[in-house]
Amino acid sequence: MTEHFDSKSCLMARLTISALERVVKDSFCWKEPTVYRALLVSGLSVLVASTQLLKADLDER
After folding, report:
1. Would you list the domain boundaries of the chain?
2. What pTM value is reported for the model?
3. With contact defined as beta carbons under 8 Å apart, do 16 and 46 qualify?
4. What is the mean predicted confidence (pLDDT) over 32-50?
């Protein structure tokens, strides 16, 4: 179960970093509201996955 959470949060983190790398190269992208939404959603997804990992770890103890 932990591996599933790890892969989801890892994937979202990689996608976020990839998107940021592209945006840094093209400053015009910052004018798009979609960029902000995508960063917010991916950041929240990583936060939720991390919280689930912590909860699962605490429940095991």
Report:
1. 2-60
2. 0.57
3. yes
4. 81
User: Are 9 and 54 contacting, i.e. CB atoms less than 8 angstroms apart?
Assistant: no
**Residue 53 pLDDT level (bands cut at 50, 70, 90):** confident
Residues 6 and 46: beta-carbon distance below 8 Å: no
User: Containing H/E element for 33?
Assistant: helix 33-60
Residue 26's region, left for phi above 0, alpha for psi from -120 to 50, else beta, is beta
d(CA 22, CA 3): 28
**Torsion angles phi and psi, residue 26, rounded to 5:** -130, 95
Contact status, residue 35 vs residue 29, Cβ threshold 8 Å: yes
Tokens of 6: 């790890």
